[in-house]
Amino acid sequence: MAGADDDARADDVTREVRAAFAGATWFELARATSEAHHAVERPGAREPGADVRRARYAALRAMLDEATENVSTHCLHARL
């Protein structure tokens, strides 16, 4: 049952991150994603809170990817 609990917590973290960074600029997302990545990469991957840090990084990374795609699409359309 721990897997279901982990998934539920990851979903909660994703919702929290999306709410916290709604309307953020690409640069703000990039900075937050970089900071989250460094928090995940530090030693002690199994210490308390590691799963939350990984979920936060994954959510930020997804938002940054979406923002990058939107910027790329906007630039492409502007050139046409």
Between the first and last Cα atoms, what is the distance in angstroms?
Answer: 52 Å
Query: Approximately how much beta-strand content do the residues carry?
Result: under 5%
State the total count of DSSP E strands. 0
Which bin fits the share of residues in helices? over 70%
Mind summarizing the main beta sheet?
Answer: none
Mean pLDDT: 84
Low-confidence spans: none
Oligomer: single chain
How many domains make up the coordinates? 1
How big is the Rg? 15 Å
- What string, H for helix and E for strand, traces the elements in order? HHH
Overall, the morphology is elongated
Helix/strand/pairing class, anyone? mainly alpha
Our count of helices gives: 3
Can I get a quick summary?
By secondary structure, this protein is mostly helical.
Structural description of this entry:
The chain is mainly α and 80 residues long. The chain has one domain (2-79). The protein contains 3 helices and no strands. It has helices spanning 2-20, 26-41, 50-79. It is elongated, with a radius of gyration of 15 Å. The model has no long low-confidence stretch (mean pLDDT 84).
Layout of strands and helices, then pairs:
Layout: H1 2-20, H2 26-41, H3 50-79
Helix pairs in contact: 1-3, 2-3
Keyword list:
80 residues, 3 helices, mainly alpha
